[in-house]
Amino acid sequence: MKKTRTTKRWVKYLNCIYLLLVVVGCLAPSAACGEKGLNQVPEGFVALFNGKDLAGWKGLLSSPYDNPIKRAKLSPEALANEQAKADLSMLEHWTVKDGVLEFDGKGFSLATLRDYEDFELLVDWKIVNPRGDSGIYLRGTPQVQIWDPEQHKIGSGGLYNNKKNPSKPAMIADNPIGQWNTFRIKMVGERVTIHLNGKLVVNKVVLENYWDRSRPIFPSDQIELQCHGDPIHFRNIYIREIPRDEGPQPLTKDEKAAGFVSLFNGKDLTGWIGDTNGYIAKDGRIICQKGGNVYAKDEYSNFIFRFEFKLTPGANNGLGIRTPLNVNAAYQGMELQILDDTADQYKNLQPYQYHGSIYGVVPVIRGCQKPVGQWNYQEVTAKGGRIRIRLNGGLVVDADISKITDTMDKRPHPGLHREKGYIGFLGHGSQLEFRNIRIKELK
To answer: Disulfide-capable partner of 227 in 39, 109, 146, 272 (CB 3.0 to 4.6 Å)?
Structure first.
């Protein structure tokens, strides 16, 4: 049948309407491509779930260590043992199929590998069976509620465990069981705003600390997808971090009690030696300008070293530990990579070259580094041959180097098993910044 001019206008009009719905988010753009409703990453967000596997996620420790306060009291060895058990359970009960994260209703919750502070979270979820029940923990704390709206006539999206502050959503905005729903969750400080399927159901409500109601919500912790004994599906999980820059901070009361001391006075490079002309101290930060190696003046053997760093695009530096002075620490000691490994110039890196790796020797678990221009928090524990590295709360390296005889880069590393040496920043000509540098010696 020959199309009239009017018919052509209507077709063009309907196509425009469809594209408009895609842009405002009422339709998934990939739905037209046959990808079962899987979206592209929205601008400004990063994917927490890659649609393929469980990379970037870990199993939540079972009770009582699902409690962040009790979890923090575990020794590194006990924590590693508990995490190993939790990860085995995760692999048994959380699976990925056709871009969907499926939970079978058994086992324990799923947690992000790293911690988050302020953020905006997008997540699609679907209750599989009637009476289904789940939720999303923010900073390790319950919870943004998910449940069957036919059974619970108040709807999903409320901050269920609040007692003093509102706990119920403003309205029922759920889709029927078996259909996908979308949360947009924004958390800044203690306050949470939630949209469910485009409708505002929670508006800047304080999330209470379920684990200890005498204290405010944790400033930083992991995001969790809750196990509540019912099957639940998730997809299209994206996050946009909202930078929170509180500036240089003095030692906390807990750090002082634990025996930490500051290695940087925030004013000048007193206490540092080496190529100090390549670095300047300004506003509580050590700024690497020209590069070179700068070291804390004393030698250390076993320790916990904490610092924050902020990268510029393509920045390359390193953290030398147990290294002699004025040598190539990657081989004569140990170099832990400090690197913008997202830069295009590093697209062909080896696993032992990404940020946080023990250069040439031990690879790193990726996914914990913040975008360039934001402050990252890193903690390095060296105790005998055991080296542990945490990046923004996520354990990215846990290695016993005393058992390593063959290196990954097939080069000699004669300093790998040194028991003592200097700690220093190893500049490679890139600009970047450091702050809040402290250490605790382990006897």
So the answer is: 109
Spatial distance between the Cα atoms of 179 and 156, rounded to a whole number of angstroms: 14
3-state helix, strand, coil in the chain (%, to 5): 15, 35, 50
Question: Residue holding tokens 């002699």?
Answer: 324
Percent of the chain with pLDDT over 90: 88
Q: Helix, strand, or coil here: 333?
A: coil
Q: What is the DSSP letter of 369?
A: P
41-241 maps to CATH 2.60.120.560: yes
Spelled out in words, what is the top-level CATH class assigned to the domain 253-441?
mainly beta
Query: pTM for the full model?
Result: 0.84
Sheet holding 110-112, edge to edge: 57-59, 110-112, 224-225, 133-138, 141-147
Count CB neighbours of 178 within 10 A. Answer: 12
Do 397 and 387 contact (CB within 8 A), yes or no?
A: yes
Question: How far is it, in rounded angstroms, from Cα 298 to Cα 166?
Answer: 53
Contact (CB, 8 A) for 369 and 357 = no
pLDDT tier, 38 (very low <50, low <70, confident <90, very high otherwise): confident
Position 139 scores a pLDDT of 97
Alpha carbons within 13 A on the beta-carbon side of 243: 11
How is residue 324 annotated by DSSP? -
Helix H segments across 39-133?
Answer: 68-71, 76-93
Helix (H) or strand (E) holding 8: helix 5-24
| Tokens found for residue 264 | 């940087």
How does pLDDT run across 105-153, given as a tens digit for each residue? 999 999 999 999 999 999 999 999 999 999 999 999 999 999 999 999 9
Rounded-to-integer distance, Cα 285 and Cα 425, Å? 13
Q: Are 190 and 216 in contact, with CB atoms under 8 Å apart?
A: yes
> What pLDDT score does 301 carry?
98
pLDDT at 34 over 90: no
Query: At which residue do the structure tokens 């099957």 appear?
Result: 231
Residue 133: beta bridge partners?
147
Tell me if residue 126 falls in helix, strand or coil.
Answer: strand
Question: From start to end of 29-180, where are the E strands?
Answer: 46-47, 57-59, 94-97, 100-103, 110-112, 119-127, 133-138, 141-147
**What does DSSP say about strands 181-188 and 232-241: parallel, antiparallel, or unpaired?**
unpaired
Question: Where does the pLDDT of residue 247 fall: very low under 50, low under 70, confident under 90, or very high at 90 and above?
Answer: confident
Examine the pLDDT at 314 and tell me if it is beyond 90.
yes
